[in-house]
Amino acid sequence: MKLNIVEYPDKKLRLKSKVVKLFDKKLHDLLNSMYPIMINTNGIGLAAVQVNHPIRALILNIPDEDGEQPKENLLEIINPVMTNQSGETVYQEGCLSVPKFYEDITRFDTLTLNYQDRDGNTKTLEAEGLLSIAIQHEMDHLEGILFIDKLSYARRKKFEKEYKRMLKERKTS
Ligand code: QAP
Ligand code: CO
Questions:
Q1: Nearest by Cα to 131 from 146, 148, 150, 112
Q2: Is the CB of 60 under 6 A from ligand 1?
């Protein structure tokens, strides 16, 4: 399956992703195709809506202590629901749909997640650190929310100005 990353300000990123009901070959094809595009673009997380499939599916591959991303660590998360959240943590986030921009965002420190795997089996996960941050970032995508939406008014304005300039320069080069 040929996939492309949808980039801000494309309105497709604002769609609310639909619950996955069929755990079929079509879903597996999509998940299989999302993995290489995430790795090749140096991503650690990708929601299906970011490749123009607004369904409640996302993948995560958090680097280990050595900065490696072995495929054994790949998490495929379908229909996630957060049940417990606690604490606060700040991390400089980026997004494959908002290339080249990084901003400090406050998230919950730890969380518990209920979700389904690619075969529809129910799972529970306790997350902290970067995994917890990544889950919250990717779950926001399912609601059409981007990390830049969480910036203060002043920082958002600065972002819009710099991003527009970047897009313009990309067009003329
Ligand atoms: C979401 O983000 C995330 O601008 C995943 O030029 C972010 O994989 C989870 C990326 C922060 C946890 C913490 C961004 C690659 C990748 C860029 C990504 C870029 C190239 C972002
Ligand atoms: Co993102």
A1: 112
A2: no
Q: Determine if ligand 1 sits within 6 Å of the CB of residue 133.
A: yes
Is 17 in a helix, a strand, or coil?
coil
Catalytic choice (128, 138, 143, 160): 138
Q: Which residues contact 58 (CB under 8 A, 6 or more apart)?
A: 45, 46, 47, 48, 76, 77, 80, 138, 139, 141, 142
Q: What is the CA radius of gyration of the chain?
A: 16
The Cα 30–Cα 34 span in angstroms is 6
Tokens 């379908």 sit on residue: 78
Spatial distance between the Cα atoms of 168 and 124, rounded to a whole number of angstroms = 44
pLDDT 10s digits, 104-138 = 999 999 999 999 999 999 999 999 999 999 999 99
* Residue 138 appears among annotated catalytic residues: yes
Smallest CA-to-CA distance from 61 within 72, 78, 80, 74 is with 74
